[in-house]
Amino acid sequence: MAEGGTPVTMSDVARLAGVSTATVSRVVNGRYGVSASTIAQVRSAIEHLGYESSLVATSLRRSRTNVLGLVSHSFQSYTAEVLKGVAEALTQSGFDLIIYANSDLYGKYSEGWERRHLARLSGTLTDGCIVITPSGDMQSNTPIVAIDPARDSTVPSVTADNLAGGTAVVEHLLALGHRRIAFIAGRSNMEAAWLREEGYRRALAAAGVPVDPTLIARGDFKPESAVPLARALMDREDRPTAIFAASDGMALKALEVAKELGLSVPGDLSLAGFDNIPESALSDPGLTTVDQSMYRLGFEAAGMLRSLVNGNWEGPHQIVLPIRLVVRGSTAAPRTP
């Protein structure tokens, strides 16, 4: 800011540097015809005054902003971990990052929220966007990379091996001796939710355990959505001996419900989740879960987007990252009746 709190202008920079505004413009926009000493003089004035050129004006001149967007339905632990990977991938890349999310913590926007956000960011403000868990397919005049895309999505994407993750959790519970294993599913329009449920079904089938449809509850990945579903499962006379929730957020809410009902975990009920958010290691007991390396999801998505923006991406349309089962204290063999 200039004196009096007014924004610093190009004229202010020119006046301090002792050059014309045209010269400042050439330096800001990286054009030729300015001596090294003058460039240093102008940059010194820019740093001293804290001048920032308009992103919109720069994009109109260059057709590039060197800014990437990160669009999310809401900000929770999962999103924060992904963001760490994105930020690391963009370090010293020449790209800045704009983060755009719903102000509501649990995101009450209807389906299609990401299209509204992309319309605001694409083209004039950003050169491309990463969209986390979109509700549907998307179109934009700039490159898009989805993290955990919608089912049947056609945009480039990065995701974990959700099928393998769902299978690994249920195989672990089966190996402990559980046969009545309930599942709290995620958002039905997400590929990740469908694959995690498919892993649950395949693991049961491979063990010769029939799938009981009454033990499958339909959540939407929002933690609070699991509360009534978990309570209904735990209130049954033929209560399941284990519950697998499609996200850690929902599993941790199920853990709270179990404690409210006076159930011991894992004595009366084993619980498992998916994601390996930091809170899963801090719960009491620690939550058995699937580590899908959210940091790496963000890192790989940012790398893919940078290459797409620069026109040199030669990798696959979808990157699928390996998972790792993390066994903690929330799962154990069922008690003998």
Radius of gyration: 25 Å
- Give a short account of the largest sheet: 6 strands, parallel
Mean pLDDT: 87
Separation, N- and C-terminal Cα atoms: 72 Å
Shape: elongated
Estimate percent helicity: 40-55%
Strand order of the largest sheet: 2-1-3-4-5-11
The count of β-strands is: 12
Low-confidence stretches: 105-109
| Structure class | alpha/beta
Strand content: 5-15%
Please write the string of helix (H) and strand (E) elements.
HHHHEHEHEEEHEHEHEHEHEHEE
Please give the count of helices.
12
Compact description:
This protein is of the alpha/beta class and 337 residues long.
Describe the protein.
- It is a single chain.
- This protein has 337 residues and is α/β, with parallel strands linked by helices.
- It is 40% helix and 15% strand.
- It has 12 helices and 12 strands.
- Helix 1 crosses helix 3 and helix 7 packs parallel to helix 8.
- The chain starts with 9 loop residues before the first helix and ends in an 11-residue tail after the last strand.
Keywords:
337 residues, alpha/beta, six-stranded parallel sheet, four-stranded parallel sheet, 12 helices, 40% helix, 15% strand
Write the layout of secondary structure elements.
Layout: H1 10-17, H2 21-28, H3 36-49, H4 55-62, E1 67-72, H5 77-90, E2 96-101, H6 113-121, E3 128-132, E4 144-147, E5 157-160, H7 162-176, E6 181-185, H8 191-206, E7 216-218, H9 226-234, E8 242-245, H10 248-260, E9 270-272, H11 278-282, E10 289-291, H12 294-310, E11 318-321, E12 324-326
Parallel strand pairs: 1-2, 1-3, 3-4, 4-5, 5-11, 6-7, 6-8, 8-9
Antiparallel strand pairs: 10-12
Helix pairs in contact: 1-2, 1-3, 5-12, 7-8, 9-10
